[in-house]
Structures are given as C-alpha cells and as structure tokens.
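Appendix C: a fully annotated inverse folding record. The material below is reproduced so that readers can follow the format used throughout the book. The structure is listed first as tokens, followed by the designed sequence.
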C-alpha cells in the first residue's frame, strides 16, 4: 500500500533525505534476504505521540540479529533513541508506523557474508489501518508456514516473508482478505503477518511457539489484557477445523492491531460479525496503546 514518504531516514547513524537514502544494487540483503527488522506503531494522545512497547520491539530486533550471527554496532538504547529522533525530525504527530532494519550490505556476491558491512536504517511515516475492512474473510493457505527446521520463525528476518507474500497473493487473487498458514504438522500457525486467536465457549486459544509462529508483541499484550478481562487464554496446538466451529476468531499484530475474522474458507464464524470477546479485547488494546490504561503506562514511550 502507498505511504506518505518521510522527509528523513535514519541511515547508518545519521539522518539523510529520503531521496538520498540509497544502497548498492549488489547489497547482500537485497539478493539473499539477510536482514532483520521490526514494525512499531505510534499513536497520538493528549497532545503527544506514544510509541507502543518500543523497548520490547528493539529487544526482539537484537535477538533476531543474534540468531543470524549479526553483531550490531549500535546498542539497544542507541536504536531506541534513534527511533524517537526519527519521529521528531520528521515532525510526526499523527498515527505512525516505524520500521527499523539491520541488513547485510555490499561486500561481494557469495552467501558467506563474513566481513561484509552491516547497515542500519529507520523509517517512520504516517499510517492508518493495515486492513481496509474491520472484519476479514480469510482462507487456509496451500502454502505451509516456514519451520524452525529450515528458517527460524523466531527471527523477524526479511527473507522469511517471501513465505507470507506467496500466501497473501494467493488469498487476494482468490477473493479473500488474507490467509492463515498451517505449520509443517498441519496445525494452525499464523496469518501472513499476524498471530491468531480462537474463542470457544468464552475461552481463548492461540498457537504456541511450537507451531512456527513469530511471538508477536501485540500477541503478548493481548494475552496480558485477556487475563485482566478474566478471559482465560491457553497456548496449544489448534486444529484447522477448530477455526470453522469457533465462536470468534481474530488476528493480532502491530499493523493489524486486533482485527476480527468473520469467515474462514467460506464458513461463517459465529454469527458472521465481530464477537463480544474480540470487541472487549480490541477496546482494551486501544486504551493501552493510547496510554489510557494506568496498569500499562510502561508500555508506551512519549516522543515529545
């Protein structure tokens, strides 16, 4: 989807104009997917801008880098400050998306990137809703989710997302809004860029890390909030057919936030509209990201 291009990009420790933020055509990450990244949101609230779970996202970025033998020269604190400075220099005060990335730069054409430079960038830009619908119709993808046996799902690596691209395009071309991928065992894993929750008889279930999910920070937030709402949530294997007969199903993610799924493989979920539990979770989440939940003030970082 098109975005409003920011004026400045943080690139390798300094701010450059959007038009000057360039890398060589033979950049290793461009050819081999050797990059790790994060996606964060910031929300306007009481005349300020609040970044949601900033330190947690940067911590996951550093963990992703570690999995791929990357040793960033910037500390988590330095990258955290760079995110805030990127929002400030671009004078962003509306809902925004932030994309930090660490990637292998140009140093040759082989797979062995030892000795190649690591590059760093942060982009921030105004951003609204990821999905253009508040309620989604999805399908089970014919493509299986990547496995820890081949490409570690716990690293938010750029190359991992070609798996999601195939699933997303297939879904859209077949008239769906998104897709749900199964893991290599045939159990529900996640969406193309979202975690998934199932509601049945007032209880919530979500696939565990053993199902090749990326452990989402929004997912973690929802699990905390559900307990506070006295909705029991359990991590376990989820069978495909459980989606069909669920009372409610919803996606969670930084971009997706909390988005209801009302149909899976042409089967209506519940009464075919957003359910009561999903709405309670969504409303609670929105309060948290806006800094309106006193129990989770530590989840938001003011920019100004």
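Designed amino acids, in order:
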């Amino acid at each position: 989807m098109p975005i409003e291009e920011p004026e400045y990009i943080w690139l390798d420790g300094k701010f450059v104009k959007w038009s000057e933020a360039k890398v060589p055509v033979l950049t290793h990450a461009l050819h081999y997917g050797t990059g790790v990244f994060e996606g964060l949101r910031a929300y306007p609230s009481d005349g300020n801008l609040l970044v949601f779970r900033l330190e947690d996202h940067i911590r996951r970025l550093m963990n992703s880098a570690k999995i791929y033998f990357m040793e960033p020269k910037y500390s988590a604190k330095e990258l955290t400050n760079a995110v805030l400075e990127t929002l400030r220099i671009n004078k962003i005060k509306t809902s925004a998306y932030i994309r930090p990335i660490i990637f292998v730069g140009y140093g040759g054409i082989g797979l062995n990137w030892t000795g190649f430079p690591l590059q760093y960038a942060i982009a921030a830009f105004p951003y609204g809703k990821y999905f253009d619908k508040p309620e989604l119709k999805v399908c089970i993808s014919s493509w299986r989710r990547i496995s820890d046996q081949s490409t570690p799902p716990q690293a938010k690596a750029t190359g991992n997302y070609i798996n999601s691209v195939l699933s997303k395009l297939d879904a859209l071309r077949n008239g769906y809004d998104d897709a749900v991928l199964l893991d290599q065992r045939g159990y529900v894993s996640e969406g193309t860029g979202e975690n998934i929750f199932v509601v049945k008889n007032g209880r919530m279930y979500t696939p565990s890390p053993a199902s090749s999910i990326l452990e989402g920070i929004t997912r973690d937030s929802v699990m905390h909030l559900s307990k506070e709402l006295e909705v029991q949530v359990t991590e376990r294997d989820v069978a495909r057919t459980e989606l069909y007969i669920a009372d409610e199903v919803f996606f969670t993610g930084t971009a997706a936030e909390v988005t209801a799924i009302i149909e899976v493989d042409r089967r209506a979920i519940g009464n075919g509209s957003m359910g009561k539990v999903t709405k309670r979770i969504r409303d609670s989440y929105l309060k948290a990201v806006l800094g309106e939940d006193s129990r989770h003030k530590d989840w938001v970082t003011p920019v100004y």
